[in-house]
Every structure is written in structure tokens, then in C-alpha cells.
Design a protein that fits this description.
237 residues, 43% helix, 6-stranded parallel sheet, 10 strands, Rossmann fold, DNA polymerase, domain 1, alpha/beta
């Protein structure tokens, strides 16, 4: 895979297992919910492999007509514990800072419920890096649909239709992120160790083992942006 040779104008990030490790709380909350609903809980490995889609898409097949009860159980447990489990992944803040300092528009498009996502960004002191932080249920549909991407781009005056031509990356750790990148016209950038995942028709264009290695590329590319950068969320020509 060929590495990018210039910096993008905008970078969209997934959240869980891309910038932060919050799998501990996700797994604990799912286990609590499964047990309360009389079902055998997943292993932690199963949680990491299967908890990719948003809750409103994944819970109905799992719990049938009791999915709203399961949703309440999950959110009650998650709300009480998620900040205690929150851990930045190595190099994540270095990467965000390096991109932000170069005037690149950054946003989050995650399938974690939006208000939890924004609480976590605030707790880490990362809110200022992003022009928009969009989570599940913030838009009409969730990732890999384009509605949350459109919402994330709006503060920069960008549209999804502009992404293939302005220079954009979508950075994530899972198949749903790579699918969203392809559909949106972004460069699909995979971080983490999902080398054995079946990406089907939506493969990553480039892979990095961590945010640290992606940050290294950003620093080597320096100020090679060949398109307008951003100041206060507005493109500078």
C-alpha cells in the first residue's frame, strides 16, 4: 500500500479503539445487559469483533421486541461507569495536536451515542481539536450511512460531495469505518491490529499499527497541504 504524499484538508475519526480504549466499559455494560436479559454474555474478544454498529441497529436483532428494555439497561450501566474506563490510545493526542496545528479540519464520526462521546472528549480535554463530534442518534441514520458525515462536515462549510476532490481521510479501526470512508469518498485509513478482518469491497487504502505511526507520517509530511486549510472552522483560500 502506498502512503499518502500530501496532507489532507480534513480528517474524520472514529472514536472507540481508534483514539481511545473504552472497550472495558462497553464489554462490562454488554455483559450486564445480556445477563439481565437472561442471555449468555459475549467474551471480551466477541465484544471487540461484534460491537461495531450503533445500538439502535444492533440491539433489535439481539433482543427482539425487548430491545428497548435492553437499551435502558445498557445505558444505565454505561453512564455510571464509562468515564472511569476511558483511556487515550498511545499517540492519539499527539496525532490530533499535529493535525490541528496544521489547520486541518478534524471531526469525529462514531457509533457511540453522541452525548457520551462528547462527555468523553470533554473529560480528555480534546473538544477543542474537533470542529464537530457526531455520534449515534445525532443524525437521522448512523455510520456507515452518510448522514453523520454530512453533519460532521457542516461547520467547515464542506459537503460529502466535496470530499473526493478536496483531500480527506477517514481514520478508523473497523470494517464499518472503511465502508463509510469508501462511500464518502475519503481515503480509508486503518489503525490498529484488525489485519485479519474481512473488509470485502471496502478495504483500507493504507494501514498503521497505531496512532503513533500515523502521527509519524503526519510529521514527515509536514505542511504539504495543497488545498485550503482552516481557521476557526472556515476554509482559508
Amino acid at each position: 500500500m502506498s502512503l499518502p504524499t500530501t496532507m489532507p484538508r480534513t480528517v474524520l475519526f472514529d472514536w472507540d479503539n481508534t483514539l481511545v480504549d473504552s472497550w472495558g466499559c462497553i464489554h462490562a455494560s454488554l455483559a450486564f445487559t445480556f445477563e439481565a436479559m437472561g442471555l449468555p454474555p459475549w467474551s471480551e474478544d466477541d465484544t471487540r469483533k461484534r460491537a461495531r454498529r450503533s445500538l439502535r441497529e444492533s440491539f433489535p436483532p439481539l433482543f427482539g421486541d425487548r430491545w428497548e428494555q435492553a437499551r435502558t439497561l445498557y445505558f444505565d450501566h454505561f453512564s455510571a461507569h464509562h468515564l472511569n474506563h476511558l483511556r487515550p490510545l498511545p499517540g492519539a493526542e499527539m496525532l490530533l495536536k499535529a493535525l490541528h496545528q496544521r489547520g486541518i479540519y478534524l471531526a469525529v464520526v462514531s457509533n457511540k451515542t453522541g452525548h457520551y462521546l462528547r462527555r468523553e472528549a470533554e473529560a480528555l480535554g480534546w473538544t477543542g481539536y474537533f470542529g464537530s463530534i457526531v455520534g449515534a442518534t445525532d443524525a437521522e441514520t448512523d455510520k456507515p450511512a452518510l448522514a453523520p458525515v454530512s453533519m460532521a462536515l457542516a461547520p467547515a462549510g464542506l459537503t460529502v460531495e466535496m470530499l473526493p476532490t478536496v483531500g480527506s481521510w477517514f481514520v478508523g479501526d473497523a470494517d464499518v469505518d472503511m465502508e463509510c470512508a469508501h462511500v464518502a469518498g475519503c481515503l480509508p485509513v486503518l489503525v490498529g491490529t484488525a489485519a485479519d478482518s474481512d473488509f470485502g469491497q471496502y478495504p483500507p487504502a493504507v494501514r498503521f499499527d497505531s496512532c503513533l505511526s500515523l502521527c509519524d507520517l503526519v510529521c514527515r509530511l509536514g505542511d504539504t497541504i495543497s488545498v485550503p486549510t482552516f481557521r476557526d472552522g472556515k476554509p482559508q483560500v
